[in-house]
Amino acid sequence: MGVVARAVFLDRDGTIARDVPYCSRPEDLELLPGVGEAIRLLNEHGFMVVIITNQSGIARGYFTEEMLERIHQKLKNDLAKSGAHVDAIYYCPHHPNDDCNCRKPKPGLALQAAEEHHIDLTRSFFIGDLLQDIEAGHLAGGKTVLVSPTETSETLLQGEVMPDFTAPNFMQAVQVLLAA
Asked: Which backbone phi and psi does 178 adopt, to 5 degrees?
C-alpha cells in the first residue's frame, strides 16, 4: 500500500494536556481547554491524529509503561467525550542521555508512525509547545506550528529552529493549519 494519509502529529504535555512534571497517574492528566473540540475538527477534516511524546519518566523509574497506557487510556476517554479521537500514540521511554533515535527532537517516532500508517509527512503538520517539537517536525519533513501563549517572536524564535506558524493556543493552532 502506498503513502496516502496526511496527519497532524501532536506533542502531549504542554500542547494538548496540562504540563505536569512526569505525569505519572491518570488522574494527573488534564486536557487543556478546547483540545477535544480542536481534535474533533482535525478528525472531521480527514487528518490522522498521532501523538508523539517523550516520556523519560519511564527510564527514570517514576512510572511504568503499564501506567503510561492507563494515562493514555484516560486521554482517549476524555477526547471521546468531545467526539474526538487519536489514531495512534507513540512515545519515547528513554532517558535523554540514551541517545536513542526516538527522542524528540529526533524524528524517529514520526518516521515509525509514517511507515506503519502510510502517512505522507510532506503533507502533514507537527504541533508542539517546545522548539524540540518543531525541530522534530522539520527533520521529518512536515510543516510546524508552535503553540505558545507568550510572545514568541522576540524570545524563542531567535535560534535556528523556526516554526512555520505560531499560535497562542491549541485551537488556534488547528485553525491555522486548516487554513494553510
From this structure: -70, -25
Q: Residue 34: name the closest of 166, 167, 126, 180 by CA.
A: 167
Residue with cell 531567535: 158
Domain coordinates in residue numbering, the chain: 7-179
pLDDT single digits (tens) 75-131: 999 999 999 999 999 999 999 999 999 999 999 999 999 999 999 999 999 999 999
The C-alpha cell at 108 is 524517529
Q: Which residues are catalytic?
A: 11, 13
Cβ–Cβ < 8 Å for 176, 41: no
Superfamily of domain 7-179: HAD superfamily/HAD-like (3.40.50.1000)
Phi-psi region of 129 (alpha: psi -120 to 50; beta: other; left: phi over 0): alpha
Instruction: Give CA–CA dist 105/161, Å, rounded.
Output: 11
pTM score: 0.93
Q: Where are the beta strands (DSSP E) in 3-132?
A: 7-10, 48-54, 88-92, 125-128
Name the residue type at position 47.
F
The x, y and z cell numbers of residue 67, run together, are: 501506567
